[in-house]
């Protein structure tokens, strides 16, 4: 992997460092008559840039739906190349990527590209024809799972996978109702927005459908039962049991309980061990099934295991597992795996399930290549080693910084919960946003998420190194210190006192923008989506911090 | 393109011609101890086969959902390679492909593969980063559409596209109800099964949701208003108007009318010109939008135009167009295009729309390459020329064969409606199935679809040639003649008489299998899916034809 951090490739000067003069000149030259083809511009690495960044942005505003947001809306990144855990912008500037869990085995992995190319040269067709890639991939994938999870359905996205999981669950006993977790996000199609409080809460108070039941998030830092509770797993599971009983009293029937094995958008929440077992027991007793959504967290990210639900112990086996994002290292593919019994009940309806692209030989070749790389490069081991090191480093930060309320994570899935007040655990939303923008200046890509968007979210490509971990934590340390000093927070080993963070965004403004943003998270009006997101109107709070 | 039809590649002998001895021996050798890796076997063209066909089938039964069906269930095809309009099985046998509309610019097109590889080597990430491919592709795609259709959402499948189209439509004026056509199929996710009579009719009589309204299919051969009606376009549109009025009386509100620009699974139905304009007028007056589903029929297939809805005339512009299958020549991608107004209403909800894989630089590079090939190889022109020739040849067949009731089509989208009785137009379902199986023996892949699965469905890769058209029609001619002779149907120029086709499947059987199949279409219990499908229990009717 390439050494160094945040450096520039080659010797080319960045024109914009001198106030944008060079870029402006270049744009002027390239303007020409409207409608004429824009000449291409050579870029570092032999690439070509078709449009200037301003032109790309203008075309995007014209032709892409305004609901499709960009990172860092005030100054979005134009990324033209990526390799391993690094992304490069149009000027050759290099960014350390801590957020793209889709580029699981590393950006642009040559082994994956080669496998895709080889299969594209031969054949890409639908699964109504027999093909070895399909069955070999199904065999390899099910071999990573407990034995009873043996039947696959290949689809194209996490959303398609979760939708199909719901169809399987509903067909199983003819039940309709679904229990989902607070702050959960399971996908963008209609049926999944219905069961994603992360989304439907933004649509007003009547947006919850009657067949949807929301259980408390098993978050032992911010939730109903916390780390001081003697048995939070049972207590949270009991909440699910209560919902089931209530539902049944109303004559309704539970088809499924669905949860990410660890909540991602919901705030990097790791459920207490034993929770899933108990929930599964209650849900099964009600004739429902347990759907483990591994779209964000599967494929070895947790290090110790290949699947995050395995953190609950060997005595827990979900009825349906859904996969997505990392499965094809960016290639659009995903999978639902279930038991023979559920699959046969689904088949008994007589309705065929056909997915045009799902399970095509190219997607399967890519899926196989990803499994190969995880194995050959011991990326699961790497996730465990680097993840543990990253956690250690972050725990040191917690000791030092009053802004750090909680560190949680496993493998290369880590959350840093920023607080304004250690005891009250007041979410430090503006501070998290500030940090993210400051890290971008340092050429580090990190995001903030969770219901208050105050949780720094690490989910880097699995080739992330010890050096990367050290580098990013060092930068965070410096930034936290700066923020704490600027606002009079006490930095040191004693951070237990109730120190009110005095960072205020846009001081003096009667309606500070970041306060709006913070509120918009609380009431859910802004996007809180996987990978984090920065709304168009964001104003970097740093402007108002006295440094 | 390679010449000849149905020939074998190379000089290798097919072992199974001698009674399967060679294949059996080979399988025996490869069995080995269970669980051990199976040695690969060299195949024609330098490929390798990992498993024997029987092993592939066994693994498929074990690991792939039973709802996922194969073509020709009694003897499925194992396809290992494809090029242009040809597919090759594991023995090197070559098939002429008349059904794969996904391989739009031809199977394994090197230009598309090259574009994918080049981009995969550089970058594949989500659309929250700016990228030229995304905006360039959106620009190129919208340039093929009427001006007001200017805003794109990139997604991964036709199902994701149609689901998003419904979300856009419902957000537009807050209406919920949807008008769909008889026999329509719009996708496999929950929200689309709800609006697909092709699917929900199979789930029992209470399966239609109250917000769904089914309008008669504008089929002038089998529908309510036929070719002898003075104005079928207005008459069918009037039916939609009646539905709207009825709906409004019940206090409900129409969000959308959705229809394929030409019905594919529904039976290759081409709506009469002027129908869409009138429907759009009524739907707009009710505050709804017109969704044109071009997933099966777009991208120049109709020859004269790039989009099938353009067959209705320049005065018709849908509010939303959905795309899919051919868009990436097999790569999982699709798109929704709409107006600025609808896109802004969608954005106004505050809900972000994020699709992890949608619009990634690789998918966009592939989409651009497909557009390039269509243009460079004049595939739209080819569709027009070869399609017209194919229609001419088939019209000759209609004159000659009493089994041919109707020929309809445009460009390389053609349907042959087989009937047992020219006047009653009784669907010749068993005969269509027989023909499909016989054509397979002749190394030609064709399918039958429609509500009675009696309609031969041509939708070949767009590089289909005059020679291919001639070849397949010659084979059909011979087979139709054989079938008519075997059953005493009169073959010749005078086929208007009421000649009852005497082909009976499994004569003497109290419950003939193919009769079951035929019934299962009538009541919808069997799959009638795009690309046609042959259920596991199929028995080739030819066995009972006295030849």
Automatic annotation (TrEMBL), chains A, B:
Its EC number is 4.2.3.2. Residues 1-44, 506-547 are annotated as: Disordered. Gene3D superfamilies: Aspartate Aminotransferase, domain 1 (3.90.1150.10), Type I PLP-dependent aspartate aminotransferase-like (Major domain) (3.40.640.10). Coiled coil: none annotated. It is found in: Mitochondrion. Keywords: Lyase, Mitochondrion, Pyridoxal phosphate. It holds the Pfam family Aminotran_3. GO terms for biological process: cellular response to glucocorticoid stimulus; ceramide phosphoethanolamine catabolic process; lipid homeostasis; phospholipid transfer to membrane; response to food. InterPro entries: Aminotrans_3, Aminotrans_3_PPA_site, PyrdxlP-dep_Trfase, PyrdxlP-dep_Trfase_major, PyrdxlP-dep_Trfase_small. Its cofactor is pyridoxal 5'-phosphate. Its main location: mitochondrion. GO terms for molecular function: ethanolamine-phosphate phospho-lyase activity; pyridoxal phosphate binding; transaminase activity. It comes from the Eukaryota. Residues 1-16 have a biased composition (Basic and acidic residues). GO terms for cellular component: membrane; mitochondrion. Residues 508-522 have a biased composition (Polar residues). It catalyses: phosphoethanolamine + H2O = acetaldehyde + NH4(+) + phosphate. Signal peptide: none annotated. Homotetramer. Catalyzes the pyridoxal-phosphate-dependent breakdown of phosphoethanolamine, converting it to ammonia, inorganic phosphate and acetaldehyde. Belongs to the class-III pyridoxal-phosphate-dependent aminotransferase family. This is Ethanolamine-phosphate phospho-lyase. The lineage of its organism: Eukaryota, Metazoa, Chordata, Craniata, Vertebrata.
């Amino acid at each position: 992997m390439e050494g160094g951090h945040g450096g520039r490739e080659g010797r080319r000067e960045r024109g914009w460092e001198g106030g944008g003069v060079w870029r402006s000149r270049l744009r002027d030259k390239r303007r020409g008559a409207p409608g004429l083809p824009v000449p291409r511009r050579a870029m570092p690495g032999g690439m070509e840039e078709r449009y200037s960044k301003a032109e790309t942005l203008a075309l995007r505003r014209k032709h892409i739906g305004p609901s499709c947001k960009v990172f860092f809306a005030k100054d979005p990144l134009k990324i033209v190349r990526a390799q391993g855990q690094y992304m490069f912008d149009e000027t050759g500037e290099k960014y350390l990527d801590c957020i793209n869990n889709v580029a699981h085995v590393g950006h642009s992995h040559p082994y994956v590209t080669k496998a895709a190319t080889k299969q594209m040269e031969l054949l890409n067709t639908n699964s109504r024809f027999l093909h070895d890639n399909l069955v070999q991939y199904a065999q390899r994938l099910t071999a990573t799972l407990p034995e009873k999870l043996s039947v696959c359905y290949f689809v194209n996205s996490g959303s398609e996978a979760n939708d199909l999981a719901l169809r399987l669950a509903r067909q199983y006993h003819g039940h309709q109702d679904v229990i989902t977790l607070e702050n959960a996000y399971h996908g963008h199609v209609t049926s999944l927005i219905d069961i994603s409080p992360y989304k439907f809460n933004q649509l007003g108070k009547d947006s919850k459908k009657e067949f949807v039941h929301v259980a408390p998030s098993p978050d032992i830092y911010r939730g109903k039962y916390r780390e001081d509770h003697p048995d939070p797993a049972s207590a949270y599971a009991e909440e699910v049991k209560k919902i089931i009983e209530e539902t049944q009293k109303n004559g309704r029937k539970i088809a499924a309980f669905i949860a990410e094995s660890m909540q991602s958008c919901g705030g990097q929440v790791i459920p207490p061990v034993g929770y899933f077992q108990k929930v599964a027991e209650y849900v099964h007793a009600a004739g429902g099934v347990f759907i483990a959504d591994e779209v964000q967290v599967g494929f070895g990210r947790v290090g110790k295991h290949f699947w995050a639900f395995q953190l609950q112990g060997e005595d827990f086996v979900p009825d349906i597992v859904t996969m997505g994002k990392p499965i094809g290292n960016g290639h659009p593919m995903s999978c639902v795996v279930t038991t023979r019994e559920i699959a046969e009940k689904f088949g008994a309806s007589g309705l065929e399930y056909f997915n045009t692209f799902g399970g095509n030989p190219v997607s399967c070749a890519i899926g196989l290549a990803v499994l190969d790389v995880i194995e050959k490069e011991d990326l699961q081991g790497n996730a465990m080693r680097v993840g543990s090191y990253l956690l250690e480093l972050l725990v040191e930060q917690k000791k030092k910084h009053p802004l750090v309320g909680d560190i949680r994570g496993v493998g290369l899935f880590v959350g840093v919960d920023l607080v304004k007040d250690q005891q009250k655990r007041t979410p430090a939303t503006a501070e998290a946003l500030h940090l993210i923008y400051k890290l971008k200046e340092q050429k580090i890509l990190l995001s903030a998420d969770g219901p208050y968007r105050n949780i720094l979210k690490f989910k880097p490509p699995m080739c992330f190194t010890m050096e990367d971990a050290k580098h990013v934590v060092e930068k965070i340390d410096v930034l936290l210190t700066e923020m704490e000093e600027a606002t009079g927070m006490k930095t040191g080993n004693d951070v237990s006192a109730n120190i009110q963070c005095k960072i205020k965004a846009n001081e003096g403004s009667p309606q500070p923008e970041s306060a709006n943003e913070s509120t918009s998270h609380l009431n859910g009006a802004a996007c809180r989506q996987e990978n984090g997101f920065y709304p168009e109107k964001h104003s970097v709070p740093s402007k108002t911090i006295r440094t």
